[in-house]
Amino acid sequence: MSFTNVYKLLGDNLEEDPSGLLYCVLYDGNNIRGYELMSPEKTETIRIDNSTVEDVHYLFDLDAGDYVEQSREQRQFPDPNAISPVDAKISELNAACNAAILAGFTSNALGTDNTYDFDYDAQINLGGMLNAITADIVSGTVVWKASGIPQTHTIDQFKTVFAQGLSHKNTNIGKYWTLKGQVLSAETTEEINAIHW
């Protein structure tokens, strides 16, 4: 659909009186499809990056029957929904830290290296079992999954598993805080992007 007939409703000269409204006949080549009142000028704002926009100013050309670009102006206008490079990197590091913790850890409490689950449920269960041991509710041995297979652990072996799990968690959290400090100290986006888990 195109504007084939455009009439000024107010004002004598479009260039001298850009406040005048235009009355447009919408025509599809065969039939009139409607009418529209429109302003002779408009501005379109285009986002350039997270902190800059460009305003494109148009004026309606009666001869061309369409808007014609008149000027472009860039201005600072932070995107309220944008995430800063610092916040994005901290979020990335936080996710990497959580993933590393939840992936589990290795313990040699049974005399050889075994992997132990350390997802949220596993952490709760480990803590619950340690509380039961500490409260003398559980004594003797504990059957706990090591390398995917339920295996018998003495109380001391279980405490070693718990301690190594806690060390695994604290090591990753410490790494996160160190890297976060580097991000907060970085002075450029390139420095921030160079920081990896």
UniProtKB/TrEMBL annotation:
Pfam families registered for this protein in UniProt: DUF4376 (PF14301)
Organism: Paenibacillus allorhizoplanae
Domain of life from the UniProt record: Bacteria
InterPro entries: DUF4376
Protein name: DUF4376 domain-containing protein
DUF4376 domain location: 88-195
Lineage of producing organism: Bacteria, Bacillati, Bacillota, Bacilli, Bacillales
